[in-house]
Specification:
The chain is mostly helical. The protein contains 9 helices and no strands. The two termini are 31 Å apart.
Amino acid sequence: MKAASRLLAASAVLVLIITSISAYLRLSQYGLGCADWPACYGANPVGDAALSESDPLFWMRVVHRISATAAGLLFVVIALVWWNGWGSTKERVLSVAPLALALFLAWLGRYTPSSLPAVTIGNLLGGMATLAVLWWLRSAALPHRSTHRASPTTAGVAGVGLGLVFAQMALGALVSARFAAAACPAFPTCGAWDGTFELSGLNPFADIARQELGEHTRQVLHMMHRYAGAAVALYLAWVGTRAVRLGGSRRGLGLLLLGLVAAQFALSVALVLLQVPLGMAVGHNVLAALLILNLVSLLAAGEPIRAAAATGSARNDAELPERHEHASH
């Protein structure tokens, strides 16, 4: 399954590029980085307007479409060619997931860009879920050289962390779609709040224009994202510390997780103080993707050692007792 692991790694890198370009396109269309920022925020200066070839957005769209097409072809290969090579039914089902998600995103692309938060959230989470599945399959396809014992607890805490990151990204997409990213230019507070909040702001299927949503509602949405981010960061820091203490391959993953959490926290503060520069906003999205890759690796590291392919499972199972016997001596 070495060829499969290489293909899956290449596919994951391609999806990381696609999600990063998608973030750039999405945020540019919201008006981040425009000449009269932040007054233009939410004006949708690009939308469906024709772009000249001298505009960076034009080439970003071209690269995005080519990359998405190439990724779709790779997903077909992953779903069909190695179907019988996976060692479990779960992995066979997951091998079809990238193709299914790509079809969903292609359908959602018909409504993108959109002022409807559900579309923004669907695009973001769909791309990140594709990335997570590809990285999990890559871990399953790799030959297991590690001798550490399986740790369901490690997998459990990493899985919870993964779920929290996805939830935080969904909230962030809602904040972006509601034009609330610049609602609180100070840190750590947000200024005065008169106690008003419109619950419709939390409904991702409510198409509410910026002028129809009160400024205080946007402030609350922004602060919800901040507080939730702080809680998720603390949990991930605990997961990273725990992984470091376990040692082995998980030590390196734990140290990397701690570094990514620190970098994301620092970037989040800089985003607020510098009034959400476009480049930093895209970097915020990229760091979230790297956190997902790290947590999926930790999740896989906590799984039982098993053969990557069905064809070699019997032989590996027979060799495991012998390996443990030698290890005990």
